[in-house]
TrEMBL record:
Residues 34-133 form the Histidine kinase/HSP90-like ATPase domain. Pfam families: HATPase_c. The gene is rsbT_1. The keyword Transmembrane does not apply. It comes from the Bacteria. SMART domains: HATPase_c. This is Serine/threonine-protein kinase RsbT. It comes from Sutcliffiella rhizosphaerae. Coiled coil: none annotated. One of its GO terms (molecular function) is protein serine/threonine kinase activity. Its EC number is 2.7.11.1.
């Protein structure tokens, strides 16, 4: 199993491909079917945002180890950036007439979530899912 893959995202076909690679990697790592679905859904949401808002970007999917194995996914683009990350992280907030559930849902489904965005420079989102739940219960 390849431990790191880096792919371009610029079309619907790329979204389908990165979803497939994410699911296969998660399955090969032994993630439960529920966590495979969470990972696949998160990748799909982030990749779709790249195509929708920036037009072009990239994703890296990497198997990592820190006490337990995990899957690190980093999605980046050079799009317009996010005007207000705080607003974007609110359930129901949208700039595109969608449900506004995307980024908050990704954060809930994953164990780690980091977003950095600069206006007119682009956005980078890093998410991690560990094979064992390492979230702080507080």
């Amino acid at each position: 199993m390849e431990t790191k893959q880096h792919l371009e995202i610029k079309s619907e076909q790329d979204i389908i491909l990165v979803r497939k690679i994410g699911r296969e990697t998660a399955k090969n790592m032994g993630f439960s079917l529920i966590d495979q679905t969470r990972i696949t859904t998160s990748i799909s949401e982030l990749a779709r945002n790249v195509v929708k808002y920036a037009g072009y970007g990239s994703i890296s999917i990497e198997v990592i180890h820190h006490y337990v194995p995990g899957l690190l996914i980093v999605v980046t683009d050079q799009g317009p950036g996010i005007n207000s990350i705080n607003k974007a992280m609110e359930d129901g907030f949208t700039t595109s007439n969608s449900l506004g559930a995307g980024l908050p849902a990704v954060k809930r489904m994953m164990d780690e979530f980091i977003i950095v965005s600069d206006l007119h420079e682009g956005t980078s989102i890093q998410i991690v899912k560990w094979t064992q739940n390492t979230k702080n219960p507080l």
